Amino acid sequence: MSHLLSKARRLAVAAAATVLFWGASASAATDVRVGFIPVVGAGQLFVIDGEGWARDAGLNLKLTQFESGPAMISALASGTLDAYYGGIGPIMVASARGIEVKVYAATAIEEMTFVGRADFAAQPQAATAAGFKAFSESQGRPLKIATQPPGSVPDTVLRYWLQNVIKADPAAYQITAMGIEATQQALLAGAVDAATIREPTLTVVLARDPKSKLLAVGGEMLPNQPGSVLALTGAFVKANEQAAKTIVSLHDRATTLLKDEPNRAAKHLQSGLGKGLTDLATFEKAVVSPASKFVADPMVIKDATKVMQDFQLKAGTLEKAADLNVLFDDSFYRAAAAAR
């Protein structure tokens, strides 16, 4: 009897210890408020969440979707976000305004594409200054182009390409700013003639509109074009340095999975971005498209970011230059890469 009681006591103690352990683990979980834009270029976030890596590492991700990077600036400024998955452009603006935020990892390069439709896309040299002029003259109006708000990567890359690469006559085109989903809808409805878009919008538009055509890829618009990034606020890093390091390490791991096991990754992207409206096959194509070049090393995009920033300063869409040596911090990424 004493043996049974002793065994029962040991089991009770073990059970209590287990409850205390898991209870302590749950209470020790670090909340991470993450803002993101709904693009495949932010795919690492959905892999980290979908694979359960964040939960296993004691991180409680609280995700909030925004329609563009600039829309996240006020959230960063007010301290309601800890992490940012979006374009580098708004982060430069935020940093220049004194908001304490740094880029700790890249997510992808050359995400941006230029897509045309109908009569414009059907021209043999549509994506040239001559093509823009010919369309404008034949239609009696400028080419209508949709992109995201000023200061965003889509807007900046579009204007850089138009002015510095193909050197189109400004009178031949008209740019309209709108959100990511609105851009897709405008293209499919024929409300615009062209747009700068990223995945999965690119795959969706090309599949649904047989008259649409991919006219320029990111590398043609701006070589090594910086796309989305993982940025963290200074307040979060100071209060939770180990959690910040863990996020960057998981991001690096997710980048590898996106490249090595795209179909596995696609399931998580569909769950995070599909909203039950976009099928898995679309995401499987989007993850391996020419517009999906996943990278984690933030230094890969630093030089091209300077090109973008110099252009924005000249164009007047950026009031003050951000110190890129301060904005980019690769220390957590280097530690993660060394530990692979």
Describe the structure.
It comes from Skermanella aerolata. This is Nitrate ABC transporter substrate-binding protein. Residues 1-28 form the signal peptide. Pfam families: NMT1_2 (PF13379). Keywords: Signal. The chain has 340 residues and is α/β, with parallel strands linked by helices. The protein folds into 2 domains: 11-17 and 22-109 and 226-338, D-Maltodextrin-Binding Protein, domain 2, CATH 3.40.190.10; 113-221, Periplasmic binding protein-like II (D-Maltodextrin-Binding Protein, domain 2), CATH 3.40.190. Helices cover 53% and strands 17% of the residues. It contains 18 helices and 12 strands. The chain has helices spanning 2-28, 43-50, 53-56, 70-78, 88-96, 118-122, 129-139, 153-165, 180-189, 201-208, 218-221, 234-239, 241-260, 262-273, 280-287, 302-315, 324-327, 331-338, and strands at residues 30-36, 59-65, 83-87, 101-106, 108-109, 113-117, 143-147, 173-177, 194-197, 212-216, 228-233, 293-294. A 5-stranded mixed beta sheet has the order 2-1-3-11-4, with helices on both faces. The chain has a 5-stranded mixed beta sheet with strand order 8-7-9-6-10, with helices on both faces. Strands 5-12 form a two-stranded antiparallel sheet. Helix 8 links the parallel strand 7 (143-147) and strand 8 (173-177). It is globular, with a radius of gyration of 23 Å. Mean pLDDT is 91; it is low at 1-26.
Question: Secondary-structure element sequence?
Answer: HEHHEHEHEEEHHEHEHEHEHEHHHHEHHH
- Name the CATH class of the largest domain: Alpha Beta
The appropriate CATH architecture of the largest domain is: 3-Layer(aba) Sandwich
> Strand order across the biggest sheet?
2-1-3-11-4
**What is the CA-CA span between the terminal residues?**
53 Å
Low-pLDDT parts are: 1-26
The total beta strand count reads 12
Largest beta-sheet characterization: 5 strands, mixed
* Overall tally of domains: 2
Q: Average pLDDT, to the nearest integer?
A: 91
Strand content: 15-25%
CATH-assigned homologous superfamily of the largest domain: Periplasmic binding protein-like II
Signal peptide: 1-28
Protein name: Nitrate ABC transporter substrate-binding protein
Keywords: Signal
